[in-house]
Amino acid sequence: MALNKSFYLPYLLTYLLRNAYKGWFHIGCIDITHNEYEVLAAHILGTIHWYCADCNLKSLELHRLVFGLQDRLRKSEQEIDIMRKDIRAKFSKTESEYTAVRDDTKSLIQKIDEGIEHCMADSEKLMKSMQNKTPNTIENVKKGLYTKVSTDELETARRAKRWGP
Asked: Would you say 59 and 51 are in contact if contact means Cβ atoms under 8 Å apart?
């Protein structure tokens, strides 16, 4: 016994559409021809889509929105990639500059330490030299004072003789 497809057409269409609309549709009420229904009925659920006139307009708006969002997402991802590359380049440059400054600082610290050691050695030498010269200098000062005193006394005595009492 063959099934009468025309009897089941409204119910089959309802089955195909119920997930989207949650309601019943008759092909005559929604202006679908028998051939269009046959095409819809022949496809596995989910491989072909049909929308009523109202939903068709809404789906077009939704598709435009989705495509617009996809385009914006693509542009945003490109901008993010550009920013990421820029940040990596700047970070790499900053890291290189930091390394150079760190190395320069180490070198300067080493030179300062060497300079301090050199100054300390020179200070030690100077102090020892001064300690060695100090006794000689004191003796020379004493001799100079005695000589000066003697010279002054002689001078005073000569003057006294010239002018006499």
From this structure: yes
Give the distance from CA 148 to its chain's centroid.
Answer: 80
Two structure tokens written together for 132: 């060695």
Q: Which residues contact 6 (CB under 8 A, 6 or more apart)?
A: 34
Q: Which helix (H) or strand (E) holds 159?
A: helix 53-163
81-140, pLDDT tens digit by residue?
999 999 999 999 999 999 999 999 999 999 999 999 999 999 888 888 877 777 777 777
Sequence-distant (≥ 6) Cβ neighbours of residue 9 within 8 angstroms: 27, 34, 37, 41
DSSP code at position 140: H
- Model-wide pTM > 0.70: no
Look-up of token digits 């301090």: 116
Residue 135 sits at the vertex; the CA angle it makes with 134 and 141, to the nearest 5 degrees, is 85
| Residues 6+ away with beta carbon under 8 Å from 2 | none
Confidence at residue 107, expressed as pLDDT on a 0 to 100 scale: 95
- Residue 147 to residues 91, 123, 137, 161, Cα–Cα distance (Å): 79, 34, 15, 21
Residue partners of 23: CB distance under 8 A and separation at least 6: 14, 17
